[in-house]
Amino acid sequence: MSSRSLGPIAKVTIIPEGRMPVEFSTLVTSLQPVDGAHNVDLIPNTAGGRIPVHKPAEDGKITLELYPTGPSSILNTPNGPSDIFLASRVVSIDDMTGAASWTPDEAGNTLTDNITTFKYGDSSINVIKGDTGDTLITMTKTISSVDLSVAGVKVAFWVYCSAAGLTALDLSATGKCYLLLGTGGVSAANQYNFGLRLKAGWNYLEFNVLTDKVDVGGGADETDIDTVQVAFNTDAIGTTTAAGDVIVGYLHYIKNIDKGLLTESQMRVRCKTAILVGCEPDITGVATIALPASGGNTLLTYALGGWTSDALIGRRVVFTSGTALGKEYVISDNTATTITVLNSSMYDDGARTADTFKIVTTGIGALNNGSTLYNGMRTVYSEGYITNDSVTFSDMVLKSSLDLNYPPFNKAGTGLILRTSNDANAVLAAYTNW
Q: How many structural domains comprise the chain?
């Protein structure tokens, strides 16, 4: 067995099988890859010599202590990294990526796909109130029956409110904005109120199915939830909303699983992983943020940028002053002087002209073998699996400890581990490609 330390600080990006990338920072003391043994037995032969018999190489292993970084790191639920790796725990009820599958309550109210501001998949749903006959707008869908009767199960989804959207909604009392889970419609349903919890920007709304409910019409049969409705009330009958004012996304439930009862095979989650060490110094600047059109602002301008077009895609821009201090955004496009970010409104988050920012290297940009969107030492494990995941939360710090296991070869003998270096000027040849 051999051991190597990869450096003083690292970014770790993991794509669990069938899911979205998740990014963490890790400590040097916990980043110690151990190569699996590749043993050889020498079998005596009749001529007095010995025949070498090579055994299959054992899987390598790295024990990581991970700290989530950035708004996408917890992957649709703030319950901790454990939910990410225990893939069977978070279950989709509706991805909310198709507005046409939901029904609005009035002809003047509409639901449309939002392909620029979303938390999951490639879109979310705009809730647009055009009707001026009352204050209510609802969206309803019949789903395949799901059993949510087990104690501890939670239901959750995302709601985005622009500044205008937040002003338009009636947040004066409980019961004005709510989620209904029903059986055979919503006349017998569980109601989960969230209006008093809304703020500008994205809101993650989570409810214990059995203990946070208000019964409507006798309540739902939690073993047979087949109808979902999301409802909002505006502050006045004549108040309307535009696309981008109120958005909903990714409705799911979270199983209450005692991980101590799981076998190791149940804990395994296949994944692809990139470990990036020794990142380049941050790029800094002073932003120009234009007043957004309806739906938010995703554009930052810096006249002195001098960037190569598309060279910053996959990195993050982080504000270092102003109301948006500490806010992070994934860069989806850039020109010499502009940056476009993904899925968020910087203006609604408080970013303004003259706020300072920095651009940081991201491990997500280092995932693909041909990528140059990283600086430092990069190791990519094309096929791996995670075991022994555990989560702690102390002193307001969330930490996940886990073992990343990696086979050096696939069944065809092709190398699954790539290690390369990038000095910010050129990509060097891989010094190890197993």
A: 3
